[in-house]
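To the structural biology subgroup,

Please find below the input and predicted structure for C1q domain-containing protein, which we are adding to the shared reference set this quarter. The sequence is reproduced verbatim from the submission form. If anyone notices a discrepancy with their own records, reply to this email rather than editing the shared folder directly, so we keep one authoritative version.
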Amino acid sequence: MKISVSFMLLLLLGAISPSESVESKQDTLRNMNALLVQLKADMTLLQRETQEQAAQQKTEVDKLKTEVDKLNKQQIVQQVAFSASLGGTGRATIGPFPSATTLIYKYVPTNIGNAYNPNTGVFTAPVRGAYNFEWWVGAFGDNGWGSGAWLVKNSNQLFMAYEQQKDGFMSSSKGMTLLLEVGDIVFIRLQVQTSVFDDPGHHNTFSGHLLFPM
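Predicted structure (tokenized):
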């Protein structure tokens, strides 16, 4: 429309002749003014449409960037795996204790996603999903007590690994898959009147990883 109006305006400009009557010139000027008004309106509309298109494109780009950032964060969150042992820098026996005690696995060679806290011994689920956990317990045999520990979700004791024998080194292990919500905690609790032993061989371990988010 802008091109056609401009073309018509040029035609009218070329059509004005010095020999034309005053009335004819006035009519031509009136037509030119009308065309100028129309051309200005068209240009304003075009500018507005261009600005709206630019704003719409910026909005779409911002949405796309937000989705990409969200997917990147989800990808990072979904990379969760850890493996830890009690210490293993020297020979040490923990327990027996008269009450249940949370085991703190301080030697952490793997902690992808940093969901396991080596200061508290607690794993905190960063995303809703299915997780798999494994834990091993072991100590030297004693007629008085065995070696046992519970896998605990929040405050619920679920599965227990336990072994007892007269002498020699005894050990036991368990594995369990759990559906966890964001913020659920999982840890290992030493059974009352049992013990665990660790040395550089890392006999007592706690491991877990995210199988898939849900």
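Summary notes: Helices lie at 2-15, 22-77. The first helix runs from residue 2 to 15.

Regards,
Lab coordination
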